[in-house]
Amino acid sequence: MLDQEELFRLAVNAMESQRHAEAVVLLKQGVANDGQDSRLHYLLGAEYAQIGMPDRAAASMEQAVALQPNLVMAVFQLGLLYLTQGRPDDARRAWLGLDILPKDAALQLFRLGLEHLIRDEFAECRALLTEGIAANQEVPALNADMERILQQIASHDAEAAQTASQDEASSGSANSLFLRGYAASGDEQLH
């Protein structure tokens, strides 16, 4: 029988090695053993997000944050998960948990940038995400995610400029931009 620390370490190793099924089994066992271990709920949520189960990811991250509100990476990722699910109000509410951080903390800068993105304030978003990337030395993978958002903004700006130059105003343009952005987010099978 594995103890909690062994389950945690083995699960992290499985996650790092992309052994998703093994990681989920280990994390679920750890949560079953001790439902109060916020680390395991957080990692289970991250793994569910990785394998494309956003509802379970949100539920696990919500539990992690409820158990340990100062688990700021879980707070940030929960908000990001809500944002990718088209739930900006829930994202903003989740990110209130980041108020404990200094204003110049990377997660705080990312949060503020993404809040500008929600309001279609692309220049402000771009500036804050860039500043956050420079401030974030601890989690390179998070910088990569923010870089992808910056690339999507650049693509959106290029499409908007092209559309404006062609003077193709359409009542459904906002919806089609959203759908194109969504389809480009990793559903290679659809293309």
TrEMBL record:
Pfam families in UniProt: TPR_8 (PF13181)
Repeat region (TPR), residues: 38-71
Keywords on record: TPR repeat
Name recorded for this polypeptide: Tetratricopeptide repeat protein
SMART domains named in the record: TPR
Domain of life the protein comes from: Bacteria
